[in-house]
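Colleagues,

For the teaching module next term, I've prepared a clean inverse folding example: a structure given as tokens, and then the sequence designed for it. I'd like students to try predicting residues themselves before seeing the answer, so please don't circulate the second half yet.
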């Protein structure tokens, strides 16, 4: 066994690929460790007696597993499927997806800036010095601009390439919304309500007010996070309420379920 081969640590959650199934379990390769081989014993696939192993694992299938034991001198890695919780599985798959997105974006930068393999490696190192992941680096640039790269000593032409790639990232958003009931008994009450709502819709980017049918209107706020969305919503509701009540009308607001649209 090669002395410089990297092994996972006991307790680590890893992504693997099933390569061979036998009566006693399944042989897998570890995707993040140069496809070194590990073994998933039948007893670690699920609780209780397993009649048919193929019901749980199939050749070529990706599985999130927990590392039970590691013996580097023998090259043995014992793994478990049943000791992985649903939350751990989801978290690992998100991490892998973000890693793959980061590498795709990095390849885009390399292509635009005509970077060699060594230059790409150097860029990765600089980004990891400031950010937890490559994807986090690109996401920060997309959200806040290239100023977040200050102090990284990345050349201007590469920064330009990063900015170009990041301009195409679909940012994660959240949406908070609710239903307003608005009345105004004046002869031109409907027009007054419409004028108030139209004015707000035009002045607050990220807000959207739709007519549901008298006297109901939905107000929705889309932003990068819930805190900022709440900050946007409050003055809009205050202004609508003041405008309606000033014209002798009534105002009420009922909150609806918020939504989070993840990038991953």
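(Answer key — instructors only)
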């Amino acid at each position: 066994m090669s002395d410089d081969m990297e092994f996972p640590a006991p307790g680590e959650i890893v992504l693997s690929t099933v390569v061979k199934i036998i009566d006693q379990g399944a042989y897998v390769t570890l995707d993040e460790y140069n496809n070194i081989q590990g073994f998933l014993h039948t007893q670690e696939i699920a609780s209780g007696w397993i009649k048919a192993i193929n019901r749980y694992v199939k050749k070529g299938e990706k599985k999130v597993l927990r590392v039970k034991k590691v013996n580097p001198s023998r090259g043995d890695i014992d793994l478990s499927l049943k000791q992985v919780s649903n939350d751990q599985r989801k978290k690992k798959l998100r991490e892998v997806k973000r890693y793959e997105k980061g590498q795709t974006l990095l390849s885009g930068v390399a292509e635009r800036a005509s970077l060699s393999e060594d230059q790409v490696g150097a860029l990765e190192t600089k980004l990891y010095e400031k950010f937890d992941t490559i994807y986090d680096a690109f996401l920060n640039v997309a959200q806040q601009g290239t100023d977040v790269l200050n102090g990284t000593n990345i050349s201007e032409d590469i920064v330009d390439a990063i900015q170009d790639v990041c301009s195409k990232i679909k940012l994660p958003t959240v949406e908070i919304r609710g239903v307003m009931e608005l009345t105004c008994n004046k002869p031109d009450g409907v027009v007054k309500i419409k004028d108030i709502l139209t004015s707000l819709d035009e002045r607050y980017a990220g807000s959207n007010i739709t007519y549901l049918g008298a006297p109901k209107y939905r107000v929705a706020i889309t932003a990068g996070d819930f805190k900022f969305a709440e900050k946007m919503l409050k003055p809009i509701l205050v202004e609508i309420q003041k405008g309606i009540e000033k014209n002798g009308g009534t105002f009420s607001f009922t909150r609806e379920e918020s939504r989070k649209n993840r990038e991953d």
